[in-house]
Design brief:
Layout (H helix, E strand, L loop, with lengths): L1 E2 L2 E3 L2 E3 L6 E6 L4 E7 L3 H19 L3 H17 L1 H12 L3 H18 L2 H4 L3 E7 L2 E9 L2 E5 L7 H12 L3 E5 L6 H13 L6 E3 L4 H9 L3 E7 L2 H13 L3 E5 L4 E5 L5 H13 L9 E6 L2 H16 L20 H16 L3 E4 L18 E4 L6 H4 L6 E4 L5 H10 L2 E2 L1 E5 L3 H10 L4 E4 L15 E2 L2 E2 L7 H6 L1 E9 L17
Parallel strand pairs: 1-5, 8-9, 8-11, 9-10, 11-12, 13-14, 13-19, 14-17, 16-17, 19-20
Antiparallel strand pairs: 2-3, 4-5, 6-7, 7-23, 12-22, 15-16, 18-21
Helix pairs in contact: 1-8, 2-4, 2-7, 3-4, 4-6, 10-11
């Protein structure tokens, strides 16, 4: 069995804690590798090594740092197939979906090539008599990212790309469920010219996370995962004086107005609800048709589309719509929530609990599931299911539909399908959610905008990628300068306003 490693100081390093986690093939249910779980001492040693190298990296011309990003993009494109296959093998995604995972991370790295411009400060000459004032953005030092299983390529790149381009050293603690791709990314960064020690990949569990939170050298932490863990990391990290951004769970609603194109809406819901087996923080998990006539028309179109979905392993070809869930525990949880929906009175229109695939009976598969007449008090409505389950909540009016999304504790993404510009504009202006789609089911912003949810989906003042990421990974220093030749008088003892 393969034994994975950490990536420390530019090379693969075996774990020394003696603790390991199993890495499964989700399609077969078999253990295919084991990954070391770092101790606090291992994590602290990686941080200390990064701290020793970081000042030299921060002093490197930002254009030269950008060239490392440029070469990294070339290498990502070169190894796209290799990365996608490794990602699919451990996560279970289809190959096209795995390539999309890599591609959306690559696009953030492309944005980071513009670091020289994004890191420029400000200058005011003659702010006072013979006085100039200017500001500069400087790296924080050593920063860390704690990333989830569902995007093992994209989210590590969302975190490490801006951090490294700003001149920081970066400690990556990826998910122990699918750790191979983050290690491959570290290899490619080294090949692209990143100095040893500037990117450290430390595999681990809660012990490693707590070590990151408590290590006094680490200045900032970025996290993506569940809301309870996001709240824990945000609270403990901030109490230790760190800059922290945490992105948690989601329950994304899609409102379907009576004037919407029903076929377009149904197609969008199937892709947004069941793609990647629903293991996306931006998945649409709640459909909110306005009016019973709209709801009936939508369900009528959804059922045949859902029944035609092809579920299988990534090795079955590119026409597979989605694969297994990441672990057996995830499969059990999703099936349990489906059963709770039935027990609490929702109409189970399509039941995916008994899905079995010949030759893959031990895989972590759940068939596509559709509920109708779901209500606010049901667990399948309140909780993030993170599986191939779509719930339909019937609203009598636009205002009621709006209230479902606005009253929910999560505020990551939402969408509306309509042909009416006034309704769309009102929705965009009033909704208390971070990312909005208008006739777009999964409104993930492009790399040069910023990604982040509201309410219990996001904690912290600055979002991921885009200009916010460069603000998060730097601090501003402001200098007021007057040279001796400009000093004409003696010392002053009162604070004097600028003339």
């Amino acid at each position: 069995m393969q034994e994975l490693t950490h990536w420390i100081n530019g090379k693969h390093v075996k774990g020394t804690s003696g603790r390991f986690a199993d890495v499964f093939n989700p399609a077969t249910g078999e253990v295919q590798a084991k990954v070391p779980l770092a101790s606090k001492a291992e994590l602290d040693a990686a941080v200390a090594a990064a701290a020793a190298q970081q000042p030299k990296w921060a002093a490197t011309n930002p254009q030269r740092r950008a060239r490392v990003m440029m070469e990294f993009v070339r290498l990502l494109n070169r190894d796209m197939d290799k990365l996608a296959e490794a990602l699919s093998r451990e996560h279970g995604k289809t190959i096209p979906d795995a390539k999309g995972d890599v591609q959306r991370g690559l696009e953030v790295i492309e944005f980071c090539i513009g670091a020289p411009h994004l890191l420029k400060g400000e200058f005011t000459d003659s702010a006072g008599p013979g006085i100039d004032m200017y500001s500069m953005r400087q790296a924080l030092g050593v920063v860390a990212g704690i990333t989830p299983f569902n995007f093992p390529a994209m989210i590590p790149m969302w975190k490490m790309g801006p951090a490294l381009a700003c001149g920081n050293a970066f400690i990556l603690k990826p998910s122990e469920r699918d750790p191979s791709v983050p290690l491959m990314l570290a290899e490619l960064m080294q090949e692209a010219g990143l100095p040893d020690g500037i990117l450290q990949v430390v595999n681990g569990d809660k012990e490693s996370v707590d070590a990151i939170l408590d290590n006094p050298v680490i200045q900032a932490i970025g996290f993506v995962g569940s809301t309870p863990i996001a709240e824990y990391i945000y609270g403990r990290g901030c109490s230790n004086g760190k800059r922290v951004q945490c992105f948690g769970g989601a329950k994304n609603h899609m409102i379907i107005m009576p004037d919407a194109d029903m076929d377009q809406a149904a197609d969008a819901l199937v892709g947004a609800g069941y793609g990647a087996a629903g293991e996306r923080c931006m998945a649409i998990s709640v459909a909110v048709p306005v009016g019973d006539k709209t709801a009936d028309a939508l369900i009528e179109r959804l059922v045949p589309r859902i029944e035609k979905l092809k579920v299988g392993p990534y090795t079955a070809g590119n026409d597979v719509d989605y694969g297994p869930l990441v672990t057996g525990a995830a499969m059990t949880r999703v099936k349990g929530l489906i059963s709770s929906g039935v027990e609490q009175g929702a109409d189970l229109v399509v039941d995916g609990r008994d899905f079995k695939l010949q030759g893959y009976e031990s895989g972590f598969f759940v068939g596509p599931t559709l509920f109708d007449r779901v209500t606010r008090d049901m667990d399948i409505y309140k909780q993030e299911i993170f599986g191939p389950v779509l719930s339909t909540v019937r609203a009598k009016s636009y205002e009621e539909a709006l209230s479902y999304a606005m009253d929910h504790e999560y505020g990551n993404g939402t969408a509306i399908f309509t042909r009416d510009g006034d309704t769309a504009r009102d929705f965009a202006n009033r909704i208390n959610i971070g990312m909005i789609g208008i006739n777009v089911p999964i409104p993930v912003p492009l790399a040069y905008h910023t990604f982040g949810g509201w309410k219990k989906s996001g904690f912290g003042d600055l979002n991921q990628h885009g200009p916010d990421s460069f603000r998060f990974y730097t601090r501003t220093k402001t200098i007021t300068s007057r040279w001796p030749s400009g000093i004409k008088e003696g010392g002053e003892f009162n604070f004097k306003a600028m003339d």
